[in-house]
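Entry 12.
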Amino acid sequence: MAAKPRSKVQPPPKRRKLDGPSSHRPIDSPSEKRDVFSTPVNKSSVAEGQTSSINISIRQARDSAVAQAQQDGCTGNFRIFDSPYGNYLVPVIPTLADLGE
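Predicted 3D structure (C-alpha cells):
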C-alpha cells in the first residue's frame, strides 16, 4: 500500500488577548477596598421609558439581598452584580497576597 501524501492543513489563527489585566479577577488596592460593588445596568437593551422602574426594582432587590446577607452574619466581604435579569450576591474570598498585606 502506498501512503497518501498529506495535504498541509493550516490550523485556525490563534486569538490574541486584549490589552489589559492578565487575570480575570479585578485587583483592588487596599486603600480603595469597598464592601459592595455594583455594575451598571446595560441600558441599551431596555427601553428608556422602563429604565427608571427597572433601576428602582433592581436597587430594591440589591438592598434586600445585602440586608439579608448581613442578617445571616456576612461581615461585608461580598460583591453584587446587577442585571435586568437578576441580582447576584457573590462572596469575595481573599487570596494569599491579600492576606499578606
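Annotation: The chain is about 30% helix and 10% strand. Confidence is low (pLDDT under 50) at residues 29-48.
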